[in-house]
Amino acid sequence: MTADPATDVFEWDADPATDVFEEHRTLLTGVAYRMLGRVADAEDVVQDAWLRWSRADRAEVREPRAYLVRITTRLAIDRLRRAQSRAESYVGPWLPEPYVTEYGDTVPDAAERAVLADTVSLAVLVVLESLSPLERAVFVLREAFGFPFAEIAALLDRGEPAVRQLAGRARRHVEERRPRYDVDPGRRRELTERFLAAASGGDLDGLMSVLAPDVRLVSDGGGKVKAALRIMRSADKVARFLAAVAPAVGSAATLRPLEVNGGPAVLVLSGGRPDSLFQLDAREGRVTSVYIQRNPDKLRHLAER
């Protein structure tokens, strides 16, 4: 701490270590979340990375960005491996914890924004859950953040040929399994409004007009609240389910629009508390996927939004 003799005002000296870490915090959080699918876990990993950074001999660190990404990635891989046994006992379908992606002016380039939105989408994260921890790390670093293969190899202590193989295998896996959808946020927002109007009014015909014939509904309650225990498929089944349950929820709820996981979503509040979060994937003007997050543990962080 120093004092200005002219004003006798005390000011805190800048901490270079903190400044460097804060400069890269957004990147580190993005890497950790895409690997783990949970905001709380990602924040824990980033906090652990900070503790290691604060204790490191920074005079020996030539590239702080690479050093911090390496720490974060390895911590996330360790956490993923520990979590695999818990995932096997999860009740019902699994969806990632919603991640608010209202980038504002922090991502000015439209192409970069589209890449970031796609790699954090629910559709992609659900597929990433089926990759091995190493495959997931390579995919995230390469596809989401554009790290060169040589740098990824150094980060993971693997040979570059092996990393290229992991990247190719992960990319094929994701491309084969993720649902196709339109990324235009304006179209998705308009379709979301039409969908919600029909669902909240119990309008079966209205729902059928916006749902694709092969639409699927994925609902995550985590065994803690009521939710469909299996993925529901076909427009008829999804429409009848929503027409039956949505009006009862909507009659005593407040709807709040958000941007999460790179696309428009609607947070349903009941008694001022998050009850569920709806997000849609769409293609050619029809809803192809309906995601409903109801697990209270995954909605708690949205209470202040």
Ordered list of secondary-structure elements with their pairings:
Blueprint: E1 2-4, E2 9-11, H1 16-36, H2 39-55, H3 64-88, H4 110-119, H5 122-128, H6 133-144, H7 149-156, H8 160-177, H9 185-200, H10 204-210, E3 211-220, E4 232-233, H11 235-250, E5 253-260, E6 263-270, E7 273-283, E8 286-293, H12 296-299
Parallel strand pairs: 3-8
Antiparallel strand pairs: 1-2, 3-4, 5-6, 6-7, 7-8
Helix pairs in contact: 1-2, 1-3, 2-3, 6-8, 7-8, 9-10, 10-11
Strand order of the largest sheet: 4-3-8-7-6-5
* Poorly predicted runs of 5 or more residues: 5-13, 104-108
Question: With helices defined by DSSP (H or I, 4 residues minimum), what is the helix count?
Answer: 12
Structural class: alpha+beta
End-to-end Cα distance: 36 Å
Radius of gyration (Å): 22 Å
Name the shape in a single word: elongated
Helix content: 40-55%
How much strand? 15-25%
Describe the largest sheet: 6 strands, mixed
Write down the secondary-structure element order. EEHHHHHHHHHHEEHEEEEH
Q: If you average the pLDDT, what whole number results?
A: 86
Number of strands: 8
How would you portray this structure in words?
There is one protein chain. This protein has about 300 residues and is of the alpha+beta class. About 55% of the residues lie in helices and about 15% in strands. It contains twelve helices and eight strands. The protein has helices at about 15-35, 40-55, 65-90, 110-120, 120-130, 135-145, 150-155, 160-175, 185-200, 205-210, 235-250, 295-300, and strands spanning about 1-5, 10, 210-220, 230-235, 255-260, 265-270, 275-285, 285-295. Strands 4-3-8-7-6-5 form a six-stranded mixed sheet. Strands 1-2 form a two-stranded antiparallel ribbon. A hairpin with a 2-residue loop joins strand 7 (about 275-285) and strand 8. The chain is elongated and about 65 Å long. The chain starts with a strand and ends in a 6-residue tail after the last helix. Mean pLDDT is about 85; it is low at about 5-15 and about 105-110.
